[in-house]
Design a protein that fits this description.
Largest sheet: 7 strands, mixed
Number of strands: 7
Distance between the termini: 43 Å
Strand content: 5-15%
Shape: globular
Radius of gyration: 17 Å
Oligomer: single chain
Length: about 240
């Protein structure tokens, strides 16, 4: 499968060179698209320099910081236009180990439409999280699974691979959520569209360099959207009965 790995970036100059080298070492045949939102720290320039060194790396520079979901939509559109079979999401801060990429892509080769790198199935782990952060994430995922009847233990995971045709089928341009909400909405749409979702275990580690982009608003947005989607679907089912 021709694979495109989409890496959204904003102020990741301290990490992007190592990420790109490790990605190309793990999956040499895959191409990489760095979607950079005009990082003031020069992330795009670093990415282009490393791309000249390792090959198979393009940079899409956008005029302003526009959010994670927007970055993936832009990157996936490039993937459609260039005819890639697999589209991969992963963070650019080394929290996702590029060594897991072959396993995610193998799941697509074996028939999955979406392969999710999961922290919450046997073999998955979050070694450095506090108990309350772990509990918030676990219960947030359980709430999403309950509200949306979604058979996925880690719907908020941002390390995943899609079959390109599946992403086109679910109409990526109509997905408007960002952050955790984007990941949940994408998994929900794949499931609702009859796609096959599998989970593979990953280890998630906190970033070593740079500043986290996580905020309380991202969590609130996700919980609000999940509640709205779940209630709306229940109401529609009752009207159909």
């Amino acid at each position: 499968m021709r694979s495109l790995i989409v890496l959204p970036t904003y102020n990741e100059a301290a990490n992007i060179a190592e990420v790109l080298r490790r990605v190309k070492a793990a999956v040499p045949a895959a191409d990489v698209l760095v979607v950079d939102d005009s990082s003031p720290d020069g992330t795009a320039g670093v990415a282009r320099a490393v791309g000249d060194e390792v090959g198979g790396v393009d940079v899409l520079s956008r005029p302003a910081k526009s959010g994670l979901g927007s970055a993936y939509r832009a990157g996936f559109r490039v993937g459609f236009d260039r005819g890639y079979d697999a589209l991969v999401e992963m963070d650019s801060d080394l929290s996702h180990d590029p060594a897991a990429l072959p396993t995610l892509l193998q799941a697509l080769e074996e028939g999955a439409d979406l392969a999710v790198g999961s922290r919450y199935i046997p073999g998955g782990s979050i070694p450095h999280w506090s108990w309350h952060r772990r509990a918030l994430s676990r219960w947030g995922n359980r709430y999403a699974a309950f509200m949306l009847s979604l058979d996925v233990t880690d719907a908020t995971s941002g390390f995943r691979a899609y079959r390109s045709g599946m992403v086109e089928r679910i109409d990526i341009d109509s997905v408007r959520a960002d952050g955790y909400g984007f990941q949940i909405e994408m998994a929900h749409r794949v499931a609702r569209g009859g796609g096959r979702i599998v989970e593979v275990p990953i280890e998630f580690v906190d970033r070593r360099e740079g500043t986290s982009k996580m905020s309380s608003w991202i969590v609130i947005e996700a919980l609000g959207l999940v509640t709205w989607w779940g209630l709306k679907e229940r109401l529609l089912r009752r009207r159909a009965e």
